[in-house]
Amino acid sequence: MSENRRPQVSRRGFLGSAAAVAAATAVPTFAQAAAAGPAAAAARPNILLIVTDDQPKHTEWALPKTVAWLADQGVRFTDGHVTTPLCAPSRSSVFSGRHAHHHGVRNNKASYALDQSTTVQKYLKQAGYRTGLFGKYLNSWTLEDNPPHFEEFALLQPAYTDARWNVDGTVQTINGYTTTIVKNRTLAFLDRAATDTRPWFAYVTPYASHGPRTPEAKYADTVVPEWNGRPSVPEADRSDKPGYIKNATGTLADGRRIRAEQLRTLLSVDDAVQAFKDKLQALGQLDNTLVIYIGDNGFSWGDHGWTAKSVPYRPAHEVPFYLSWPAGGLGAGTQDHRIVANIDIAPTILDAAGIIPVAPQDGRSLLTGYSRDHLLVEWWKQGTGTGGTPTWSSYVAKDEQYTEYYDLTTDGNGTVSGTGQVKFREYYDLVNDPHQLVNKLYQATPAQEQALGIPALAAGLAADRAS
């Protein structure tokens, strides 16, 4: 089951073949956009990249204005993922376009392992972009350390109210709700486009919807739609699951509480995104701004008893993922059903800006017709203590998912140790079992494994991990 490597096309070429966006409305091409006139084939676009924290799919109720702009008038990626369901590794993949086993940030303590010369902000700043960061950066990053390659920044020490910030090199406390502060700092950065003619890159990262999930005061008592769970909340029989899932204690009530708290924090994000749209419209820059919105990882609402991220189950690694760029032909409202991921963001941005990266990237530009048939998703256990999620990697396709757990751990620098022995395996038929209730490898015979195609999947996973 090798990866389907379709021929690359230029960013002025085909944006997605019919197969890549099957069942979607027609996706325009860069060639069509260029033919529409000089404005459509405009100079390098501005870039607005919005990354929320711990936001799973199925949270669009809280984002009506965001969805109306970026999804209904742009592109909704229906099969969006992160390649490591944890904050710092995922954000490092956003910056670099690389899997965590390549960029080295395998856990939240290893943020300084990222090679800053490989980041999208470095390439853009070097190419003459004005760069800004507003909100959370990387876990374990020292607040006093200025984030490299950002000309202007308000770096948040994660909190919801009255937080500490590093603002352009000065550490200070700023009173107020941090999503609002992120919004206002971003708006001020955008305002400077009225006099600074350089294209710009704004990396905007509110703390929502991470725990403790404190809502803005005006949304504290907002009633959210009732939710009755899904078949995996909780799973009645977990005897076929790994030990840490067998011992999980999350309930439907836990899931309901987490979901409600997340939705309330995201209402303020929705307000901020609307403010960005209004500002871009006032500046006359709405059409030629490439906007990308993604969650840095998903979150489990009691699925299989789990109430966190870090697991190889769909709620943890599937995320909302939207894109808009009217001048690039991406402003009409389409659905793209390709398997896409956070590693595709940096290649997409650089492609739109006409920049060729020096360092290798694992992702591919979403502005081409490239379509993968599966994705590598991976996770490392930090430390040698008992409990918690073991190290695992997973082969994720549209119709199936195969996962291996290993005797491997990492230290605070992301260095891996252990025998690498496979300790447990899972296989799910995602067509007939989308909630991953039946692990078909539990007590399977060699003949049954052969019939499921496990040897080929295991070989494919090993190749992905080694590449």
From TrEMBL:
PROSITE patterns given in the database record: TAT (PS51318)
Signal recorded as keyword: yes
Gene3D superfamilies found in the cross-reference section: Alkaline Phosphatase, subunit A (3.40.720.10)
Domain of life: Bacteria
Residue span(s) of domain Sulfatase N-terminal: 45-355
Signal peptide: 1-33
InterPro entries noted in UniProt: Alkaline_phosphatase_core_sf (IPR017850), Sulfatase_N (IPR000917), TAT_signal (IPR006311)
Pfam families recorded: Sulfatase
Keyword line: Signal
CDD domains per UniProt: G6S
Protein name according to UniProt: Sulfatase
Organism: Streptomyces tanashiensis
